Amino acid sequence: MKPPPPDLAAPDLTPWQASHELALVVAPDGRVVAANPAFARKVGLAPAACLGRAAVSWCPPDEKTAFAARLAALAARSAAGSHEQRWQSAQGWRWIEWETTPVPGGLRLIGRDVSRHRLAEDHLAKLSQAVEQAPVGILLTSPTGHVRYMNAA
User: Fold this and answer.
1) pTM (two decimals)
2) CA 131 to CA 21: how far, in whole Å?
3) Please, which of 30, 40, 99, 125 could form a disulfide with 47 given CB 3.0 to 4.6 Å?
């Protein structure tokens, strides 16, 4: 990986150096110019090894173009945005929720791993469907005896 050019000063990620949130700055050409230790740990690299690498290199192959286009659109209109994206991490593919903000020299991305949350939502949806389709009646009440839910059976 080539290091960022000397004329591009790395934006300040000091507030995120001790954070558990993932933080990186992506230059207009898509290269990472700053990364905090949490991001580096998540992708299994040293922070310095993240610099100069294309941000899309951590995206699934079928999502790279969409991710690059999303960043380009945000940078072009100098607008903040948020989205969820699968990223390759040291633990495998993870869902990361990104908050993107324009900064001098590119875009700052602050991320949180929401994989467990998405998995819980998935399990809840499956459980809800199973309860709805159960061939027996299911009744949920409050501690005071008020009916809160009753399936169709």
Assistant:
1) 0.70
2) 36
3) 40
User: Is the CB of residue 35 less than 8 Å from the CB of residue 83?
Assistant: no
What does the pLDDT average to over 64-81? 86
> How crowded is residue 16: how many other Cβ atoms within 10 Å of its Cβ?
20
pLDDT per residue over 2-27, tens digit each?
544 444 455 677 767 767 899 999 99
Structure tokens, 153: 């059976």
Cα gap 151→131, rounded to integer Å: 7
Alpha carbon separation from 116 to 39, 90, 107, 113 (Å, rounded): 17, 16, 26, 8
Angle at the Cα of 15 from the Cα atoms of 14 and 17, rounded to 5 degrees: 60
